[in-house]
Amino acid sequence: MAKAPTGITGLDEITGGGLPRGSATLIEGQAGSGKTVLALQTLVNGARQLQEPGIFVAFEESTPRIIANAGRFGWNLPALQRKKLFFLDAQPRSDLIQSGGFDLGGMLAALEHKVRELGARRIVFDAVDIVLALLRDPLAERREMYRLHEWLQTHGLTALITSKLDSQGMAQTPLSFMQFMVDCSLILRHDVVQGVSQRNLRVVKYRGSAFAENESPFLIGGDGLEVAGPRKLSWTAAAVTTERVSSGVARLDTMLGGGYYRGASVLITGFPGTAKSTLSGAFAAAACRRGEPTLFVSFDSDAQEVVRNLASVGIRLGGHVKRGRLRLVSARTATGSAEIHLMRIKQIARELRARCVVIDPVSALSKAGNEGTAHSVAERLIDWSKAEGITLVCTSLLDEAGPQIEGTPLQISTIADTWIHLNYQVHAGERNRGLSIIKSRGTAHSNQVRELILSDAGVTLADAYTAGGEVLMGTLRWEKERAARAARLETETLADQKQAALLAEEAELRARIGRLQQELTGKRAQRQAQARTTAEHAAEGNKGRARLHELRGVDKQ
Description:
Layout: E1 3-4, H1 11-14, E2 19-20, E3 24-29, H2 35-49, E4 54-58, H3 63-69, H4 77-81, E5 85-89, H5 105-118, E6 122-126, H6 128-132, H7 138-155, E7 158-164, H8 178-181, E8 184-193, E9 196-206, E10 216-221, E11 224-227, E12 244-245, H9 250-255, E13 260-261, E14 265-270, H10 276-289, E15 294-298, H11 303-311, H12 318-322, E16 326-330, H13 338-352, E17 356-360, H14 374-388, E18 391-397, E19 418-427, E20 430-440, E21 450-455, E22 458-462, E23 466-467, E24 470-471, H15 474-552
Parallel strand pairs: 3-7, 3-8, 4-5, 4-6, 6-7, 14-18, 14-19, 15-16, 15-17, 17-18
Antiparallel strand pairs: 1-2, 8-9, 9-10, 10-11, 12-13, 19-20, 20-21, 21-22, 23-24
Helix pairs in contact: 13-14
């Protein structure tokens, strides 16, 4: 089936390219659900983007009122009216007194002339239930709707027909047969769940085409209606990379083997006050220093409070905000559904061309009114960031009275690439922050629990310190380290004293050895002198005897 693009973000994805070209689409919804906006926006986009002139037939509001209401969307309807758009006021007068029957033949004849004159390709019949209610006969209603349907097919017009539903989602007039007559049918819903406004769109049928069957949330923003597209099961647009980006804390980068992967999803969980926002702020500051546009969405604090609070621990974001590298957005979950917040985050990220996004905390999306959709929103947030190659850091608040870290409020810990957990180590009447890496896909990482230290000089991690198989932090660690230093000093002192005593004994022995060596040398000298004396005496004796013999005149013997 040939399709006519609506130009509405998300809707063309849901319908696989747009609404059926040359056929009728029924749009039903409660009051204020956005039926007129959707129909008029499709007409405007066709005229502006595809050069397809259109006609808007209004059965409920006047042309000036429609143009005034659409003025905030920036569509510039007066300029389009000159050549590409025609508005027909067909609403019944309030003082109308009906006598006899009527049909749509006259109006269709006038429209046929305008279609030829304008070269119209698209047409909208807004609030057709208003005029059909005047017929007061189900058979007449059916007859006129078939007349309208045949006229549209004859002229090959792409048509949008809007009709009201009551608060229970039922048609206010017996128009159920229209669902079977048209080729495509949409239902818009606008509900309030626990005080939170939620808008949803569902394609009920689409002959000859596949479409996304589940409800899709939408919002009416500054540019008109914007629909959340269907969730994609693959990230073909995202390239897998081994590039690392800094977490903003050097020692955490070391624990992670070099930092986060580019385009990864990072989850930081912890109890209140464990410095989740501080770690996410450190990441944002590091990204800005690399020159990467970064979006920081806070559901807890005002933007200026975020700047002030992080400055107290040496994280300066104010300069990055002024230079346009960082966009700080404050939001409150009560201002819209989780789906609406996701769409706004994606819109701002596109405008900023963000490379890094921080959501603090993402668990805020699961508050009242969003319990049933928050998990799906969080999954789509991660899917979208991967498809766009955006490095995503989300914090999640854990209930200190609830279960421990095996699960998170949104149950997204299983699909996050890196999971960092912060908790308190309570000893001796004080709390100290501990950091551990639960998982980090694709990289070796530390299994140690490190103490997270915050000061006006910045954020860092202390080396793991254990005693008796227990990790010590804070003053207990300080006291244990002091005791260890004292014991080590005492041991070193005793060792020095022993060394000195040994050196003294060695010196004494060396002295004694010197004295003995001298005594030995003297003895040797005496022995040698005695030997010389004895030899000399023997020689003298021999000489004397020889002389004596000589004097006596006797022979030598």
